[in-house]
């Protein structure tokens, strides 16, 4: 049985993962609007991935006899300065999420909640990949610089890339 404090913390994380879904969808919309269809498709996939993170936690709460209480999701930013700014914002956001996951794990340790510790290990590993992916995309953006042809090719490549694929081969 989960403690009340843990149920509350897990529900907060469901909300935060759903916010990530919303945030990445806003980024996808910006990319579409700014003639970057490949990046838009990639960010839409990232957005869907965040829904799966939220649902993992959602099912875990229910499986352990807790109550899922969905919360309001804040409005994400809708304006970005550039394609590089999208990935910089993504990295900043993923770092924040890593901190939240680590806090959750800290609570599970404090409460000697071993099942929650095991469940959260997946998220801890996922955050390493998420940060690595965003960092690599920022580096690629820097290499593109002001070259429109390089940006065109980058956008095309990203359109046929699934999230995680970039880092999986490394
Ligand atoms: Fe659910 Fe991108 O972390």
Describe the structure.
The protein has one domain (about 5-70, about 80-160): Ferritin, core subunit, four-helix bundle (Ferritin). It is about 80% helix and about 0% strand. It has helices at about 5-35, 35-65, 85-110, 115-145, 150-160, 165-170. Helix 2 packs parallel to helix 5. The protein is elongated and about 55 Å long. The model has no long low-confidence stretch (mean pLDDT about 95). Bound molecules: MU-OXO-diiron. MU-OXO-diiron binds near residues 53, 94, 97 and 130. MU-OXO-diiron binds next to helix 1, helix 2 and helix 3.
By CATH, the architecture is named Up-down Bundle
Sheet with the most strands, sense and barrel status: none
The hetero compounds bound to this protein are: MU-OXO-diiron
Fraction of residues in β-strands: under 5%
Shape type = elongated
Report how far apart the termini are: 39 Å
User: What is the CATH superfamily classification?
Assistant: Ferritin, core subunit, four-helix bundle
